[in-house]
């Protein structure tokens, strides 16, 4: 698909425009400047294009992290099919606008740059655009992204400008989400999996604030890899951007096909890891646990740390567990991708009702459900109703008397006998209707 990059100085409304055009809240929006650091990408399905939101560019001296983010934004613009330079109608043409336009003009044909005059509500389009014609780019369009004004005209322009000659059949895509608390190595892993320095990496906690999606292929499989902001306990977060970042991260994990859950094994499994792991386990997705930074431990400590992590993450015993150092030169990122796809394949198996019912009968013969109030639940047959997580529906009488420990026993029986791994087996009980006697 065509690639369209949104760029401009901070706080002109780039992320708001991105969210409105993609109809997603993928990019964080806040009055604070420089919230966007890594570029954020999403497909605009109706228009058959990929839209990219980038960090703000400013003429004033900036911290090293923001300078790197701005440099990456400019590189994205260079490689784009079309650039949308967003400016602020209320602020008028600024020195920062002119400075960035000058850099763009050196790297890109002016005909491939469109000036988007944002925040033009309550203004005539011609008046809003007047000062910005001086930038000399191919087209100048007025919008008010917050109020959704002018977006239909912008979409029509993009469709006409970038309409593909042919529409290729859509490829089935697997979505991977990398999640964990701050500074466990999520962005370093993402860069390793992509084979390029896609994500900003810093020792400073909170470097990644957006959920950042990247598409690529691995052994012929189309993947979308989503790096997320580090998630801390909500009670300890009082920053509005971090609160929204955490919400986006949890949403990415819930919507993923596979979750790559990361832990700093040198520090050990802390309480926040356990809270977040329980949340991920509740989503039921195929999961790979990456115990990162094992190069900081010697052989004996490494073995003890792995065994301790298994115990402390016991509620994720369905997950594939890998111990490694993603920053090491000998790290093999393809092993993580292979494990993720293997977990997904296992969690996506479909099994016949006959086999499900046979396993149920064998499980009942080995350990019948306990009586409750003198009545024993009668579990009769089973069938599969879903994948990733595998969902087993069991029909019977008095199913409301079946307690949680017995459900865990049944889930373990199905997982073991069918070889389900990567995702937890979910059990749903359904009361059978009693047949009337003639």
How would you sum up this structure, described in words?
With 438 residues, the chain is α/β, with parallel strands linked by helices. The protein has helices at 14-22, 64-79, 95-107, 125-129, 151-162, 186-194, 240-255, 271-283, 299-312, 333-347, 353-366, 404-418, and strands at 2-7, 40-44, 49-53, 82-88, 113-118, 139-142, 173-179, 212-218, 221-227, 258-264, 286-292, 320-323, 378-386, 391-397, 426-431. The chain contains twelve helices and 15 strands. Helix 11 (353-366) packs across helix 12. The N and C termini lie far apart (66 Å).
> What is the chain-wise order of helices and strands?
EHEEHEHEHEHEHEEHEHEHEHHEEHE
CATH uppermost class of the largest domain? Alpha Beta
Unreliable spans: 26-39, 199-209, 237-243
Predict the CATH topology of the largest domain: Rossmann fold
Short note summarizing the structure:
This protein has about 450 residues and is an alpha/beta fold. About 35% of the residues lie in helices and about 20% in strands.
């Amino acid at each position: 698909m065509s690639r369209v990059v949104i760029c401009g100085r901070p706080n002109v409304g780039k992320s708001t425009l991105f969210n409105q055009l993609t109809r997603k809240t993928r990019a964080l929006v806040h009055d604070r400047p420089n919230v966007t650091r890594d570029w954020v990408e999403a497909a605009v399905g109706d228009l058959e294009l990929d839209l990219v939101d980038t960090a703000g560019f400013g003429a004033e001296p900036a911290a090293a992290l923001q300078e790197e983010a701005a440099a990456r934004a400019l590189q994205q613009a260079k490689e784009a099919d079309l650039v949308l330079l967003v400016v602020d109608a209320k602020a008028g043409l600024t020195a920062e606008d002119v400075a960035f336009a000058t850099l763009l003009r050196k790297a890109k044909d002016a005909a491939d740059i469109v000036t988007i005059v944002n925040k033009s509500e309550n203004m005539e389009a011609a008046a809003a655009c007047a000062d910005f014609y001086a930038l000399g780019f191919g087209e100048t369009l007025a919008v008010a992204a917050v109020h959704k004004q002018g977006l239909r005209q912008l979409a029509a322009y993009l469709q006409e400008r970038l309409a593909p000659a042919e529409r290729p059949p859509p490829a089935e895509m697997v979505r991977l989400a990398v999640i964990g608390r701050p500074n466990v190595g999520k962005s370093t892993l993402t860069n390793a999996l992509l084979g390029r320095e896609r994500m900003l990496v810093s020792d400073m906690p909170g470097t990644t604030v957006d959920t950042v999606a990247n598409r690529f292929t691995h052994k012929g499989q189309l993947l979308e890899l989503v790096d997320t902001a580090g998630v801390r306990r909500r009670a300890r977060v009082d920053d509005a951007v971090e609160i929204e970042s955490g919400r986006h991260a949890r949403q990415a994990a819930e919507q993923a096909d596979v979750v790559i859950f990361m832990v700093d094994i040198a520090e050990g499994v802390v309480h926040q890891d356990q809270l977040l792991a329980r949340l991920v386990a509740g989503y039921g997705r195929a999961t790979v646990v990456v115990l990162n930074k094992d190069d900081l431990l010697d052989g004996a400590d490494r073995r003890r740390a792995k065994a301790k992590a298994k115990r402390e993450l016991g509620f994720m015993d369905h997950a594939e567990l890998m111990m490694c150092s993603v920053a090491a030169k000998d790290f093999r990122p393809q092993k993580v991708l292979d494990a993720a796809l293997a977990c997904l394949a296992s969690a996506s198996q479909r099994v016949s009702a006959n086999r499900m019912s046979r396993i149920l009968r064998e499980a009942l013969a080995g350990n019948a459900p306990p009586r409750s109030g003198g009545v024993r639940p009668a579990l009769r047959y089973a069938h599969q109703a879903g994948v990733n997580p595998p969902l087993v529906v069991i029909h019977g009488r008095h199913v409301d008397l079946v307690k949680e420990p017995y459900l865990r026993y049944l889930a373990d029986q199905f997982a073991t006998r069918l070889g389900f791994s990567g995702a937890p087996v979910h059990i749903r009980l359904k009361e059978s209707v009693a047949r009337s006697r003639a």
